[in-house]
Batch of 2 targets.
Target 1
Amino acid sequence: MAIISFKVASASEYLAITGWGINDIRLAKKAWVFIGQSCARFDVSPVNYTFQVEAMSSEKLPFILPAVFTIGPQTDDVESLIRYARLIAPCDKNSDHVKDLVQGVIEGETRVLAASMTMEDIFKGTKTFKQEVFGKVQLELNQFGLVIYNANVKQLVDVKNHEYFSYLGQKTQQEAANQAKVDVAEARMKGEMGSKERDGRTRQNAAKIDAETKAYSKQREGEGSKAEAKVQTEVMLFQVEQEAAVAAANAQLSVKKAEWLCQAKVADVEAAKAIAIRDSELQLEVEKKNASCQTEKLKAELLSRATVNYEIKVQEANWELYRKQKVAEAALYEQERQAEGQRAIAEANFFTLQQQADGALYAKQKEAEGILSIAEAQGVYLRTILEALGGDYAAMRDFLMIDGGTYKEMARINAEAVKGLNPKISIWSNGSEVAGGGGQGSSHVSSAMRDMAGVYSMLPPLFGTVQEQTGMLPPPWMGKLESPAN
């Protein structure tokens, strides 16, 4: 099991570290995680939540408010991030638990705000209504460390089996159609009146011109025939005057007839248009009365139905809130039990490592005691040899070198060094005392001391040979060669 590990979070993640040495929660992008500590990663990227919020205005008119919210952790505030890590991060942010939490906050604040406004206020102040909703929702989300990055409210729509917006559109369309019919009738009336007026004036002018033409013609004829016969002229003049009087009377009669006909037509048209206008006004009044009656009837039905639905929704919301509270309490209890279990495991692991460390320390202590005992035994061994040799340090040194095989190793190294060469060979002897095993000194030393003395006596010739062949002198601790006598 790893005692320590190094954790690194990605660009959109944070590390939440708890446990040994940390009072509450420590947030970091990278950190060492020691034994007895727990490290969890959580993502801080925002998430889109789409809702169909059902609300009701102050007139008890239900409507649906489609909305899309982009919500995520508040990364610029450490306290908000800690609240998010403690409350939201243990759950998947795309899970139903988080979505229900956000949806409950948004729906609750939207319903409370809509209940205090009329439908007309909601329509006229859509921007203000949106800002009010966002502000109140943000206040509730602060306790979870969340912030609204973006929000979009779509067009209000009718609830199923409720047609308020549909009737409102039909009313607007009907009013526009009625106004168009009135405008068409007025234009038609003005057109027909103008046509009749122009026709009468044309006839009046034609009759006047005809009369003037006939009078001028008769006058010219009378003047031409005046010289022929005065009587005939007077007779003709009288006839012309009579005819002119008759023509003038006929013209006046035609003008009067035209005026009377025009006035009659105008009166007929005005009467017909007045009847049509009055009919339209009466029909409009009837439609208004019918619409008013239908509206009151719908209001009564919708009010009773909305009251029942409101009570049902309140009970359902209370039950859902109670259920979510119990689920949240159960989840919190489970997390606390898991945390206690992890804490117990961490303490057990820490105790095990402590025992292992104590065991390793005890083994090192025993090993040091053994080395100390060996050193003390070697010290006793060296003191015993030194006492046996009468305090002669050089003899003890030589004995240790002989016992350790130092001279044999030197001889082997020299033999390997001159192998394949043609060295100068020197042969020497240590005398009959050592080689023969007898002599004057045999009664004073043992066999082992004789061997050691023989080897020691061989050293000067050996060192001399090495000096001759290599030019090297023995180290000072091995002795000093005297210059050979001339």
Target 2
Amino acid sequence: MKSLGKKIRLLRHQNGWSQEDVAKRLDISIPAFSKIETGITDVNLSRLQQIAKLFDMSVVQLLNFNDADEEKKYTTDLEQANKKLQERNNDVIELQKKVIELYEELRKNYAGKN
């Protein structure tokens, strides 16, 4: 069951939910949900159906969910987002340089008139 708990934890992270968020949605305590994620508690079929529905999956999809592939996809998505963020940071730096250049040009023109 530890593998199922890891899958549930990965799905929870992908949705940006805390353990508290999921526990509330399942109408259970946070410690009870934590035990599901860590594999301490076995999940009965009705709870499994409830969890699958929460993640908009069938029970079969949840059980067959390949966490290695999904984690790789999640990591790739994160790397792409970081790359885009770095590109935008570079764009901002270039725009800041242009603003400084224009400011210096205006300052020189103003100083030359006085």
